Amino acid sequence: MTGGNKKNYQITAFCHRFLADYIREGSVCIDATCGNGHDTEYLCRMAGPSGKVYAFDIQKQAVQHTKERLKRAGYEERAAIYCAGHEHMAEYVREAADAIVFNFGYLPGGDHALSTRAETSLEGVRQSLDILKPGGVMSLCIYSGGDTGYEEKNALMEYLKELDPARWLVIACSYYNRKNDPPQPVFVIRL
After folding, report:
1. Where do the H-state alpha helices sit in 49-108?
2. 168-172/184-190 β-pairing
3. How many CB atoms are located within 10 Å of the residue 171 CB?
4. Is the torsion defined by CA of 43, 49, 54, 56 positive or negative?
5. What percent of the chain is helix, strand and coil (3-state, nearest 5)?
6. Both ends of the chain: CA-CA distance in Å?
7. Rounded to whole angstroms, what are the CA distances from 76 to 45, 48, 69, 123?
8. 3-class SS at 76?
9. For residues 35 and 27, what is the distance between their CA atoms, to the nearest angstrom?
């Protein structure tokens, strides 16, 4: 790549390009870990005025950042944002979703001691499988090493490996030539 032709190969941008094939005007989407609101804003833009986005985070700071971001973008009416863990999404979402997005790890710019954990993340993924409609997709950005360790990544990958291949397609990608525990994008498609 040369000059101004550089593409963004950050994990979230990569996942957004994949998700674009599954989200259309009127889609129902979930941002299971809204963080600073980047994915929530993307989902609101893609689902359009007739779409609906549910967003979750356990940190009040993250919920506030997301609300502010959506207000600046003019999307605040498109989203329902909850200060609740993704392991509780089934209590709030009563309709089938076209796309569900997870970013595991900690809030960028936040306290690294507060991060997602294997047990609650597995429950969030389990609930997502029930919420995801046929032909829908779940995107998982899995960070490991450093502050977050490997327990969550290993638990998620082992769980996803055992999903019924007649019902689910799991695509695990990797930044193969990157060192120092690069994030891993994973997609789960309901067949």
Report:
1. 60-73
2. antiparallel
3. 12
4. positive
5. 35, 25, 40
6. 36
7. 11, 12, 9, 28
8. helix
9. 21
Query: How does strand 28-31 pair with strand 79-83?
Result: unpaired
4-53 confidence digits (pLDDT tens)? 555 778 899 999 999 999 999 999 999 999 999 999 999 999 999 999 99
pLDDT tens by residue, 128-176: 999 999 999 999 999 886 655 688 999 999 999 999 999 999 999 999 9
Structure letter (DSSP) for residue 121: H
| Residues 102, 139 contacting (CB under 8 angstroms) | yes
Q: Within the chain, where are the H helices?
A: 11-19, 38-47, 60-73, 118-131, 151-161
* CB of 81 closer than 8 Å to CB of 36: no
CA 75 – CA 53 distance, rounded (Å): 10
Residue carrying structure tokens 């994949």: 18
Structure tokens at 124: 């969030």
- Judging by DSSP bridges, how do beta strands 132-142 and 184-190 pair with one another? antiparallel
Nearest to 17 by CA among 191, 190, 185, 189: 185
Contact call for residues 18 and 24 (beta carbons, < 8 A) = no
Return the SS3 of 145. strand
d(CA 64, CA 81): 9
Q: Which residue has the tokens 């971001």?
A: 69
Partners of 101 in the β-ladder = 31, 139
